[in-house]
Amino acid sequence: MVHGSLATVYLSLHRSGLDGTGGPGEDTESLNVAMHHLKAAANFVPGGLLFRLRASLRWARHADQHRHGTELEAYGTSMQLMDAYMSATASVSSRHSAMKDFPSTLAVDAASCALRSGDVRRAAE
């Protein structure tokens, strides 16, 4: 939870340009710190699978939006956590219900990111 809150603060700093390093959206340090905290939230094992999955999806969304260098890693983490979460969900109906809560285009977005990065092997996975 702390990492998510810190990421929100640093994303706001990045968007506003209030840190004094340039205009809105120009501060890469605030963006890098925000991505660090989003990644940390996605990898916070005591948070549980659902918390981590939601955190990784948020990381992927912001990394994609800003074309950050962690974008491919964020998508990979999201795909792994989605698989783990679905595997841990007991029944088929529960899995179907859970899928409604997550982006239906996650796999396509991840493959598109991999292709933009020139990683054809990962795109095919």
Description:
The chain has 125 residues and is an all-alpha fold. 72% of the residues lie in helices and 0% in strands. It has helices at residues 2-16, 28-42, 49-66, 71-88, 92-99, 106-116, 120-124. The protein contains 7 helices and no strands.
Mean pLDDT: 88
State the low-pLDDT regions, or none.
none
Described by the principal axes of the CA atoms, the overall outline is: globular
The major β-sheet equals: none
> How much helix is in the residues?
over 70%
Strand content: under 5%
Radius of gyration: 16 Å
Q: Count of helices?
A: 7
How far is the first residue's CA from the last residue's CA?
31 Å
Task: Give me the strand/helix succession.
Answer: HHHHHHH
Total strand segments: 0
Q: Decide which structural class fits the backbone.
A: mainly alpha
Based on the model shown, name its key terms.
mainly alpha; 125 residues; 7 helices; globular
Task: Give a brief rundown of this model.
The protein has 125 residues and is an all-alpha fold. It contains 7 helices and no strands. The longest helix has 18 residues, at 49-66.
Task: Walk me through the topology.
Blueprint: H1 2-16, H2 28-42, H3 49-66, H4 71-88, H5 92-99, H6 106-116, H7 120-124
